[in-house]
Specification:
Blueprint: E1 2-3, E2 6-7, E3 11-14, E4 19-23, E5 34-37, H1 40-54, E6 60-61, E7 75-76, H2 78-87
Parallel strand pairs: 6-7
Antiparallel strand pairs: 1-2, 3-4, 4-5
Length: 88
């Protein structure tokens, strides 16, 4: 992918900062954001959230709500989700 004449891959190792960097797929095509990934957990959460946005799912069910930024995709714990659907 080229942005402003510079070629980018989906992810790469930044040797200067010694960290994995990824293109934040959640913001495309409106913004081009590069995100540093410090743990494998960060990467997994970004893939889950980005996939949920791209596929236009209603929500994400997770054990850890704080891993996801509020407002992008609605997130629930398993118990919260079961309570929600049983109330319908």
């Amino acid at each position: 992918m080229k942005v402003n004449g510079t070629h980018y891959r989906s992810l790469w190792w930044n040797t200067q900062d010694n960290v994995l960097e990824i293109i934040d797929q959640r913001s495309l095509p409106y913004e081009f954001i590069v995100q540093q990934v410090h743990t494998l957990k960060d990467f997994e959460d970004a893939v889950i959230e980005g996939s949920a946005i791209r596929e236009k799912v209603d929500c994400i069910i997770t054990r850890n709500l704080k891993d996801f930024k509020p407002g992008r995709v609605e997130c629930f714990t398993g118990i919260e989700y079961l309570s929600l659907i049983s109330a319908e």
